[in-house]
Design a protein that fits this description.
Radius of gyration: 34 Å
Strand content: 5-15%
Number of helices: 15
Number of domains: 2
Helix content: 25-40%
Order of helices and strands: HHHEHEEHHHHHHHHEEEHEEHHEEE
Low-confidence stretches: 229-233
Length: about 450
């Protein structure tokens, strides 16, 4: 084509038809040449930003006007961009502003659901940006410090009130926003933990129940049950723990100011979470469910003896004859209040640990209104082929007495009691432990260890 020119068949196939698609003209010397690459980059950035706004609901279409942020959205964005201590937590939280939902669940100002990672606010209220920062920081600290999980057997509302006193004091010390009128704050409680404040206010229940949280009077703003389906998150404890610890490190690295000592201590404590319930149960098995130990003897050479003929090595073996095998008892609450999840987790853990300790069988007793003796069951069948009987009331003491009077149950064998806490007062005259769901409590003082299943 360079030598003969463009063939007539292709002469009009260009982008501009018969003419050239580029107009090349000399640029005037007194004018600056445009930077087309920079202009293209800026235009591409604006287009991508507009597309992200459309995906996030801030624009109706890519050429429409940008919808201004609402006050609580500006407050949440401020944490992400300007406050590293809570920025990681704020990035994973969602603010739900729904007047109908707030009215249906009696949410006066705000509430938080740590499991869903959502903060519910009442959009009909009017607060300044500084007040919304205080409100959102309050709810994020509730979720991040796991106040819903930490209350244990305490009264949920009173522990919520105690945590409000502590959090509001911290936020005032850190200078985050402006505290709205009517929130709980007492300078005399400064420096105390939520548990210590709870012990103080629990003495005057009538006066403290008239106090109001962000959700309203007599209602806690830490929601115990999700208002919607739980999303597929990573482990919640790990998410909140990582967000707070990394935020604390960034806060110190950037010299963002001083923090309350109590808050720093609680964040540091999150870096050392308590031992999980199944690990505690395994330690209990190691201590009280003893496995038969082999005997060392030079009469039986070790397997490594052939590699070192000149060095005598003692071998290990189980002596012939009858060997006393270890066992344990399981008293299982099969009343209607017991959940399938608790039964599955508890029985599965018991079966796995018993098998690891070479326990051939365990004595299982089902209890509701009356005890049902299932006898000795192989540990492999405890979690898979056990048919739960009963489903009436909850009376466990007859099951304990049945094991105590049984001639074929060793007097030194421990007993593991699985219940939801809605039972009678128990007297167990031997070594024992309890398995309870998280948040449940026994109606009596337990003399044995209590493991809480999550």
């Amino acid at each position: 084509w360079r030598r003969d020119g463009i063939p007539p068949a292709y002469a009009h196939c260009g982008a501009a038809g018969p003419g050239p698609d580029q107009i090349l003209e000399p640029w005037p010397l007194h004018s600056r040449v445009p930077d087309w690459q920079t202009a293209f980059a800026h235009a591409l950035t604006r287009t991508v930003s507009a597309a992200m706004d459309v995906a996030g609901g801030r624009r109706d279409d890519i050429k429409g006007e940008r919808v201004p942020l609402r006050p609580w959205e500006r407050a949440l964005s401020w944490f992400v961009s300007s406050y590293p201590l809570l920025g990681g937590i704020a990035a994973g939280m969602t603010v739900v502003a729904d007047a109908a939902l707030a009215r249906a669940h009696d949410i006066a100002v705000a509430a938080v659901d740590a499991d869903l990672g959502e903060i519910y606010v009442n959009p009909l209220l009017r607060h300044t940006d500084e007040e919304w920062r205080f409100i959102l920081g309050h709810e994020m600290l509730h979720a991040a410090l796991r106040h819903g999980e930490r209350r244990g057997p305490r009264d949920p509302y009173l522990f919520n009130v105690a945590a409000d006193y502590v959090i509001n004091g911290w936020l005032r010390e850190m200078g985050i926003g402006e505290m709205p009128e009517g929130l709980l704050y007492d300078p005399q409680l400064s420096g105390l933990s939520a548990e210590e404040v709870y012990d103080r206010i629990a003495a005057d229940l009538r006066a403290k129940r008239r106090l109001a949280t962000l959700r309203g009077k007599g209602r806690g703003d830490v929601l115990g049950e999700p208002l919607g389906p739980v999303r597929d998150f990573v482990d919640l404890d790990e998410f909140y723990r990582r967000g707070l610890t990394q935020g604390l490190d960034l806060h110190h690295q950037q010299d963002r100011g001083l923090l309350p000592l109590g808050l720093v201590e609680e964040i540091r404590a999150l870096s050392h979470p308590p031992v999980p319930w199944d690990a505690q149960l395994a330690r209990w098995f190691d201590e009280f469910v003893l496995r038969p130990e082999p005997v060392r003897s030079y009469a039986r050479p070790a397997r490594r003896q052939a590699s070192t003929p000149d060095i005598p090595r003692a071998g290990r073996y189980f002596p012939p004859g009858e060997t006393q095998r270890c066992t344990f008892g399981v008293v299982l609450d099969t009343s209607g209040s017991m959940g399938r999840t608790l039964l599955g987790k508890a029985l599965g853990a018991i079966a796995s640990y018993a098998e690891a300790r070479d326990v051939p069988a365990a004595r299982v007793v089902f209890c509701d209104a009356t005890p049902y003796d299932a006898g000795y069951l192989p540990v492999t069948e405890i979690a898979s082929r056990v048919r739960v009987k009963g489903r009436g009331g909850t009376v466990l003491q007859p099951g304990i007495d049945l094991l105590r009077r049984a001639d074929d149950f060793p007097p030194g064998a421990p007993v593991l009691i699985i219940t939801d806490g809605d039972c009678d007062a128990l007297r167990v005259p031997r070594e024992h432990a309890y398995l309870l769901p998280q948040g449940a409590r026994l109606p009596f003082t337990a003399r044995g260890p209590v493991f809480r299943v999550r």
